[in-house]
């Protein structure tokens, strides 16, 4: 007897117009939220300001959905959201990144806003662009330098004795220009402060997108290096880390983490074009970005050494040497990114490595060794008294202590190249600037979290993540209220 084929119920295909309606609805809802919380998002709305408001935009979104469901009732928008959730769950790296992102990023903004309106900002803020606390939230410390570069570009007044914007690498401000343009950064009517603020919100958007993307790369890298069982813990611990609060600011931390993890991930897979692109980007993002070339070169050498007898035969024909040369060239792309900016500043200033010379204006110098000076000031004070007198440096010191404690586990559980990556990004700024900004610098050293997830028991992950999150709330409150944790 012939088998009867099993009938399966298939969902009706949704026309392109219905999918477009759902996309338009999401866009309108996002505009409503942004407009309600921050400001009018794009210049297009200026001509409609007399009768357009967040409520009107929300009403239009509802109308679009009503029409959509009258014409194409199945599958419904809710069913499509359920399908989308199922599709995300089927992609473990995407699900891990999204879960860690949603558990931490909104909370940072909530804590920051609550701290500003309850504790209040410091009596001596560096600059204020808006009287609205939420509107002004991105306007903090170095964000002003990035916003200024995005608006006006680099300038040079023939001095290295004062802080100038040539100290800041161009990747973030260059990306802020197109994003800020969508938010009205180049409108002629608003004041410079208002246009600057729109640029900074563009920087926040870049930081959030880059951080989510970086978490995705982090999950994939962690799976390769410490196993799929431990990878989600590494991602969660990185996202909850106290100094991860800076990933919500228009700072370079998110972009640096993304470019670093992207370059490493594609390098390990011998995807040279992508690895080169990310490598150049990391070299254009921060001064220490060029250091990534060293661990990448170590990975290339390790890979060549492990090829075995078959590859030795190829080496006699020159094949292995050619492969190694290609890998070393790709490994050097972070240095190429740094040199591109160096050449531009030489054209602007006539000084080679001008970005390095100006660092002294921020208190970073190899003369005098600030870290030695810091500890020499302890004197006859007890450690508790010293911490009370230096609260922000003490908090930054906790980040350094965490990194130093994890150095050995990184070398042992993750690998030589990854331990070198941590050391070369940790020791130079520690030696030249003491604990200045060291907390946020450790937040981008992703091998630390690989090693941490590998050594702690799985049952302890939730507790550590909660403790980290409490610290992140403290760092967010201090940073966004203009306390000197920068």
Describe this structure in words.
There is one protein chain. The model has no long low-confidence stretch (mean pLDDT 88). The chain starts with 15 loop residues before the first helix and ends in a 6-residue tail after the last helix. It has 486 residues and is mainly α. Helix content is 66%, strand content 0%. α4 packs parallel to α8, α4 crosses α22 (461-480) and α10 (272-285) runs parallel beside α14. The chain has helices at 16-37, 54-71, 77-89, 92-118, 143-152, 171-182, 192-226, 231-240, 253-268, 272-285, 293-305, 309-316, 319-331, 333-349, 354-357, 370-376, 383-389, 391-414, 416-433, 438-442, 446-455, 461-480. It folds into two domains: 16-89, no CATH class; 94-480, no CATH class.
Short description:
The chain is mainly alpha-helical and 486 residues long.
How many domains in all?
Answer: 2
Rg from alpha-carbon coordinates:
25 Å
Largest sheet: none
Number of H- or I-type helical stretches: 22
Provide the low-confidence segments as ranges.
none
Oligomer class: single chain
Q: Kindly state the mean pLDDT as a whole number?
A: 88
* Terminal CA distance: 77 Å
Q: What portion of residues is helical?
A: 55-70%
Order of helices and strands: HHHHHHHHHHHHHHHHHHHHHH
Shape: globular
Q: How many DSSP E strands?
A: 0
SS class: mainly alpha
Strand coverage percent: under 5%
């Amino acid at each position: 007897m012939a088998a009867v084929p099993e009938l399966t119920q298939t969902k009706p295909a949704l026309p392109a117009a219905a999918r477009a309606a759902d996309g338009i609805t999401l866009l309108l809802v996002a505009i409503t939220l942004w407009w309600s919380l921050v400001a009018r998002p794009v210049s297009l709305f200026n001509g409609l300001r007399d009768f357009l408001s967040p409520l009107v935009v929300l009403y239009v979104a509802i109308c679009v959905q009503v029409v959509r469901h009258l014409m194409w009732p199945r599958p419904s928008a809710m069913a499509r959201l359920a399908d989308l959730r199922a599709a995300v769950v089927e992609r473990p790296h995407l699900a891990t990144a999204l879960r860690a992102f949603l558990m931490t990023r909104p909370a940072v903004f909530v804590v920051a806003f609550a701290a500003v309106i309850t504790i209040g900002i410091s009596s001596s803020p560096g600059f204020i662009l808006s009287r609205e606390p939420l509107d002004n939230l991105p306007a903090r410390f170095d964000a002003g330098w990035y916003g200024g570069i995005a608006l006006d570009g680099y300038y040079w007044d023939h001095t290295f004795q004062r802080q100038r914007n040539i100290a800041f690498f161009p990747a973030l401000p260059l990306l802020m220009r197109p994003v800020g343009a969508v938010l009205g950064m180049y409108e002629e009517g608003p004041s410079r402060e208002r246009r600057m603020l729109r640029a900074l919100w563009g920087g926040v958007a870049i930081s959030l997108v880059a951080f989510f993307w970086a978490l995705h790369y982090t999950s994939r890298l962690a799976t390769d290096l410490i196993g799929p069982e431990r990878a989600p813990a590494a991602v969660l611990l990185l996202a909850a880390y106290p100094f991860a609060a800076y990933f919500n600011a228009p700072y370079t931390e998110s972009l640096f983490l993304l470019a670093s993890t992207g370059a490493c991930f594609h390098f390990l897979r011998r995807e040279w074009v992508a690895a080169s692109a990310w490598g150049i980007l990391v070299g254009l993002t921060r001064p220490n970005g060029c250091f990534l070339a060293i661990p990448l070169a170590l990975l290339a050498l390790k890979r060549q050494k492990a090829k075995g007898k078959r590859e030795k035969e190829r080496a006699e024909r020159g094949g292995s040497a050619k492969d190694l040369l290609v890998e070393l060239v790709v490994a050097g792309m972070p240095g190429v990114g740094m040199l591109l900016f160096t050449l531009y500043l030489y054209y602007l200033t006539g000084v080679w490595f001008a970005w390095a010379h100006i660092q002294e204006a921020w208190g970073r110098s190899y003369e005098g060794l600030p870290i030695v000076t810091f500890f020499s000031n302890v004197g006859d004070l007890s450690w508790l008294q010293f911490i009370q007198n230096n609260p922000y440096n003490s908090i930054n010191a906790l980040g350094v202590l965490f990194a130093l404690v994890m150095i050995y586990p990184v070398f042992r559980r993750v690998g030589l190249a990854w331990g070198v990556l941590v050391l070369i990004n940790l020791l130079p700024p520690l030696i030249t600037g003491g604990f200045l900004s060291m907390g946020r610098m450790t937040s981008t050293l992703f091998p630390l979290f690989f090693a941490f997830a590998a050594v702690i028991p799985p049952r302890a992950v939730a507790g550590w993540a909660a403790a980290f999150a409490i610290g992140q709330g403290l760092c967010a409150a201090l940073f966004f209220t203009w306390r000197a944790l920068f």
